[in-house]
């Protein structure tokens, strides 16, 4: 069976609406939402019904194209003004993953090149579809490059979900595992549960198990012991934003794993498409880190696990400094050092 038959798509364009896998309901239920309005798209992104940097970008692109269809004007400059307003509205849905901004700005540029409103409306849909198609091809390339770093029977640790459902297909950090499965290349994956929203337990464990990959779930505080006792050969993670010097924002807990990788002298890999790089930022200190609702920390689902009204700090991401990253894997290949020079050259 192929990956497409084993796993649902996270996002699908359906002509006048977006069909979205509701990732909040996984793993108990595989259900889909039909999004008809830009407000529904905004809510789906901010409430993590869709999450994962590339999937957020794809959904936002479709959301903007969807909104543009409803503008009742023939005037190109009025059309562009409304589009810019809707672009700015979608930009408030989540702050850290740069793919969101990358995708909606790409759509804005597309519309600017059209000479009529009708042309712009059609071009926007085509561009959003193109973003999704490109992401699938990109993730496959990332998977091939990443797999070249692993030996048969390696045990690899990952965090959060940087998988097929976080992208168009295959994923970034999880792509090598899906490709290894296709090629009968044995690998063992340890997935950390990823508190507070449990994307590792709910999504990665579900996705890899469904795809037939050998996956073992651990809680986040088991990472050091697991590396020590289970012969972890490498850690691989995705990314939400990589700055010009290679500093990498990813799910909270990633930085701690990078420190552990250094302590245990195992490689720490970041896998991400070029759409996740932000060359307007020199270092990770310039990245906005999303802080989310305290409910995510004080509750598991709707069940209260902390004193009511306790003070909570809930950053959704952290930044791993470039010197802890052994290699960054993109669709163009693997860069291992001198990120300050290697990263800009990826875009030449
Ligand atoms: O809060 P989330 O679930 O959107 O966070 C997702 C991650 O941190 C992923 O690792 C990252 O977006 C890469 S997805 C290919």
From TrEMBL:
Substrate binds at residues 51-53, 94, 199, 250-251. Its EC number is 5.3.1.23. GO terms for molecular function: S-methyl-5-thioribose-1-phosphate isomerase activity. InterPro entries: IF-2B-related, IF-M1Pi, IF_2B-like_C, Initiation_fac_2B_a/b/d, M1Pi_N, NagB/RpiA_transferase-like. Pathway: Amino-acid biosynthesis; L-methionine biosynthesis via salvage pathway; L-methionine from S-methyl-5-thio-alpha-D-ribose 1-phosphate: step 1/6. It is an enzyme of class 5 (isomerase). The record marks 160 as: Transition state stabilizer. Keywords: Amino-acid biosynthesis, Isomerase, Methionine biosynthesis. The active site is at residue 240. It catalyses: 5-(methylsulfanyl)-alpha-D-ribose 1-phosphate = 5-(methylsulfanyl)-D-ribulose 1-phosphate. Belongs to the EIF-2B alpha/beta/delta subunits family. MtnA subfamily. Catalyzes the interconversion of methylthioribose-1-phosphate (MTR-1-P) into methylthioribulose-1-phosphate (MTRu-1-P). Homodimer. This is Methylthioribose-1-phosphate isomerase. The lineage of its organism: Bacteria, Bacillati, Bacillota, Bacilli, Bacillales. The gene is mtnA.
């Amino acid at each position: 069976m192929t990956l497409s038959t084993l796993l649902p798509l996270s996002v699908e364009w359906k002509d006048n609406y977006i069909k979205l896998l509701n990732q909040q309901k996984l793993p108990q239920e595989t259900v889909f939402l039909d999004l008809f309005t830009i407000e529904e798209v905004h809510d789906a992104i901010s409430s993590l019904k869709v999450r994962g940097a590339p999937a957020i970008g794809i959904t936002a692109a479709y959301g903007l194209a969807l909104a543009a269809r409803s503008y009742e004007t023939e005037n190109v400059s009025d059309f562009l003004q409304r589009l810019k307003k809707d672009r700015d509205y979608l930009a408030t849905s989540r702050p850290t993953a740069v793919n969101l901004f990358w995708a909606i700005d790409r759509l804005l540029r597309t519309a600017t090149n059209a000479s009529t409103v009708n042309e712009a409306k059609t071009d926007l849909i085509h561009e959003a579809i193109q973003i999704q198609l490109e992401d699938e091809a990109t993730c496959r390339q990332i998977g091939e490059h990443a797999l070249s770093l692993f030996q048969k029977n390696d045990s690899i640790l990952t965090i959060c979900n940087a998988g097929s459902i976080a992208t168009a297909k295959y994923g970034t950090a999880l792509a090598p595992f899906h490709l290894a499965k296709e090629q009968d290349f044995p690998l063992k994956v340890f997935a950390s549960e990823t508190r507070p929203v449990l994307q590792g337990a709910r999504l990665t464990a579900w996705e890899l198990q469904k795809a037939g990959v050998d996956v073992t779930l651990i809680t986040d505080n088991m990472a050091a012991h697991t590396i020590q006792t289970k012969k972890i050969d490498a850690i691989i993670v995705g990314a939400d934003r990589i700055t010009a010097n290679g500093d990498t924002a990813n799910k909270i807990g990633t930085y701690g794993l990078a420190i552990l990788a250094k302590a245990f002298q195992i490689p720490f890999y970041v896998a991400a498409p070029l759409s996740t790089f932000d060359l307007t930022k020199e270092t990770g200190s310039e990245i906005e880190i999303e802080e989310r609702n305290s409910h995510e920390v004080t509750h598991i689902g709707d069940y209260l696990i902390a004193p009511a009204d306790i003070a909570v700090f809930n950053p959704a991401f952290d930044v791993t400094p470039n010197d802890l990253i052994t290699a960054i894997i993109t669709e163009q290949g693997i860069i291992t050092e001198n990120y300050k020079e290697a990263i800009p050259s990826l875009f030449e």
